[in-house]
């Protein structure tokens, strides 16, 4: 079975773990503290979930997900992630994380900065414009589910939504495309990482993410994006 190392156990990390387990994956979850702080979450997730220190989760993983904001001071398990695909769920939110001159000047995207942190890994931007919390406002009972769960549909469904993937590595794009399909979404390739700004906060892709976008809508909205 494929094992996903999920680094970050907040709302995004825990929701991704639940979705992945439902799709048949095993997960190893880590946070910035002790694995003991995650034992209750692992108990809720069941036998396909385990907890570990970040380096051990990275080592056990076939591929990994970073489910926390980018910071230049991040201490990541670089060696354990070497050669592996790493999915970065982060978005650049200067009001939350502070400003990064390279991003503000359009010289790099925040995902390229993550790739710089993990030079031996294959970073892909993924899951960055699907919500991990309930819909606001809630209209029907299913709106209480995180959008990652609420919007999932089987392959071929007429109302299936799509998510973007951006990477400098073809292997990473193919892996994310398969994972999206397993979780109930189509995929749109928005590579390379230098183009990942097209789905960032402030774009049409971002603003229309609450109830998702079809593959055609997503392609159109990516093309119409304007850099701010």
How would you describe the overall organization of this protein?
- It is a single chain.
- The protein has 228 residues and is of the alpha/beta class.
- Helices cover 34% and strands 16% of the residues.
- The chain is built from eleven helices and eight strands.
- It has helices at 11-22, 39-45, 54-60, 78-81, 94-97, 101-104, 110-117, 147-150, 170-183, 204-207, 215-223, and strands at 3-7, 26-30, 49-51, 63-66, 85-88, 122-126, 162-167, 186-189.
- An eight-stranded mixed beta sheet has the order 3-2-1-4-5-6-7-8, with helices on both faces.
- β7, α9 and β8 form a beta-alpha-beta unit.
- The chain is globular and about 45 Å long.
- The termini are far apart.
Largest sheet: 8 strands, mixed
Oligomer: single chain
Integer-rounded radius of gyration: 17 Å
**Main sheet: strand order:** 3-2-1-4-5-6-7-8
> H/E series, N to C?
EHEHEHEHEHHHEHEHEHH
Average pLDDT number: 96
Low-confidence stretches: none
Helicity level, as a percent range? 25-40%
Distance separating the two termini? 43 Å
Structural category is alpha/beta
DSSP helix count?
11
Report strand %: 15-25%
Number of DSSP strand runs: 8
Shape: globular
């Amino acid at each position: 079975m494929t094992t996903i190392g999920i680094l970050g156990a907040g709302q995004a990390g825990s929701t991704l773990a639940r979705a992945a387990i439902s799709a048949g994956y095993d997960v190893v979850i880590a946070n910035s503290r002790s694995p003991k702080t995650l034992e209750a979450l692992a108990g809720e997730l069941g036998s396909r979930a385990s907890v570990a220190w970040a380096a051990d989760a990275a080592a056990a993983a076939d591929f990994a997900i970073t489910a926390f904001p980018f910071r230049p001071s991040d201490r990541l398990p670089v060696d354990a992630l070497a050669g592996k695909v790493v999915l970065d769920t982060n978005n650049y939110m200067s009001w939350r994380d502070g400003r990064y001159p390279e991003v503000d000047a359009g010289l790099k995207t925040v995902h390229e900065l993550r790739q710089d942190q993990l030079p031996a890994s294959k970073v892909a931007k993924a899951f960055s414009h699907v919500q991990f919390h309930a819909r606001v406002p809630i209209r029907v009972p299913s709106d209480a589910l995180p959008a990652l769960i609420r919007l999932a549909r089987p392959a071929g469904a007429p109302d299936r939504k799509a998510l973007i993937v951006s990477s400098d590595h073809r292997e990473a794009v193919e892996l994310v495309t398969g994972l999206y399909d397993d979780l109930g979404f189509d995929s749109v390739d928005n590579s390379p990482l230098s183009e990942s700004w097209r789905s960032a906060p402030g774009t049409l892709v971002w603003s229309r993410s609450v109830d998702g976008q079809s593959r055609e809508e997503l392609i159109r909205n990516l093309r119409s994006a304007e850099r701010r």
